[in-house]
Write a structure and sequence with these properties.
It is built from 16 helices and twelve strands. By secondary structure, the protein is α/β, with parallel strands linked by helices. The longest helix is centred in the C-terminal third of the chain and has 32 residues. The termini are far apart.
Length: 368
């Protein structure tokens, strides 16, 4: 077996590790939340509309979505991942929402696993599909040909470059090499065949980082805030299984690191009012989605709850979860007297608790 073959096998094994370990209770933040509990809509007891009047449609890079939702990119590269991606794609197609795939690095190194990603476009034929590659691979010199291959693999309508410095810093096989990333991102934005989205994977994006990303021309930012799945905790479980006490302790030390999702949405929106903003990180229902949209998001991404629903109930379980989110969001519009998403963004809210402290400390009052 070649060194490359061995390395690819380890990479693919890690992908299944992340899927299965993310379903464990210890994979979630224990103390920190996404802070949506600090956002309260002012209930409208006499809405001047029918609930059936609430319009959830929105635009996503030229596509019309039936609801402002995305099944966020999670996986690919293994047979388990292929089965999951097939279900995610089917649900996205049936519900008229966007869908992403996990990092496609594995398919660049092992072409035999390309179908675990391409299956998404085979099923999701009329909705936007988002390709995915890691920032560390880009910083290390990923070629434009490779980027085009990633896009072509899933016939993508956008490509997400995922930022995961916290996870890379805590993985035994991590690649915490980000030097030159912004310049490489600038080159990618200029030459990529589709819009570029930059997404965090669970630690959030600040206003300062968002300003830098906006300045180099990215078309969207996925805040990937803290409060849902903690990759520090997932890597901690892996360190425990590998009997690495130092790494286990470091993972525990950093297990509550990050900007909560609600705060990160405000941070990113303070930096730009033109880019597409995707809210991910601990969203669990239609009320969370409504709050994220009110704070400034355009699209709400769901990963962990869709994965859990799929593992427990297959296609029907995932479909039921997405329907629940959509119907919950429809009721948020009705109960705030909002006929569409633009009106929802003007609904009256109260900010309290730690989020209010963050807003005042970071001078974000104008954003609410």
């Amino acid at each position: 077996m070649s060194i490359l073959d061995s390395r690819v096998q380890r990479l693919l094994a890690r992908k299944d590790d992340h899927i299965l370990l993310s379903l464990q209770p210890d994979s979630q933040y224990r103390v920190k939340t996404s802070w949506f509990e600090y956002v309260e809509f002012v209930h409208v007891a006499a809405p001047e509309m029918n609930m059936s009047d609430a319009a959830l449609t929105t635009e996503f890079f030229g596509f019309k979505l039936r609801a402002p939702l995305m099944i966020s990119g999670m996986t690919g590269g293994t047979q388990l991942a292929k089965k999951l991606n097939l279900i995610f794609a089917r649900v996205a197609e049936d519900m008229g929402i966007a869908v992403g795939v996990g990092s496609q690095r594995a398919a660049l190194e092992a072409p035999e696993v390309r179908d675990t990603f391409s299956v998404v476009r085979e099923v999701a034929v009329s909705v936007p599909v988002v390709a995915n590659i890691g920032a560390s691979q880009l910083a290390e010199g990923l070629s434009l040909d490779a980027v085009e291959d990633i896009v072509d693999m899933v016939d993508a309508d956008a490509i997400a470059v995922h930022l995961n410095p916290l996870q890379e810093a805590l993985q035994p096989e991590g690649e915490a090499r980000y030097a030159g990333l912004l310049e490489r991102l600038r080159e990618l934005v200029e030459r990529a065949p589709v819009p570029v989205i930059v997404k965090e994977t669970g630690a959030g994006i600040s206003r300062e980082t968002a300003e830098k990303l906006a300045a180099i021309g990215v078309k969207g930012i996925d805040v990937g805030g803290a409060g849902g799945t903690s990759f520090a905790r997932i890597e901690g479980i892996r360190a425990l299984l590998k009997d690495d006490p130092l790494l286990l302790q470091l993972c525990e030390d950093f297990s509550e690191w990050g900007i909560p999702t609600a705060a990160s949405i405000l941070e990113v929106r303070a930096a730009t009012n033109t880019l597409l903003v995707v809210a991910t990180g601990g969203l669990r229902n239609g009320i969370d989605a409504g709050k994220a949209l009110r704070l400034g998001a355009d699209i709400c991404g769901f990963a962990y709850p869709v994965l859990r629903a799929t593992m427990e109930g297959g296609y029907q379980g995932a479909l039921n979860f997405v329907r629940r989110v959509i119907e919950g969001l429809r009721r948020v519009l009705f109960l705030t007297n909002s006929r569409n998403l633009n009106e929802l963004k003007k609904a009256r809210i109260v900010i309290k608790g730690e989020l209010r402290e963050w807003v005042l400390s970071r001078k974000l009052l104008d954003m609410i």
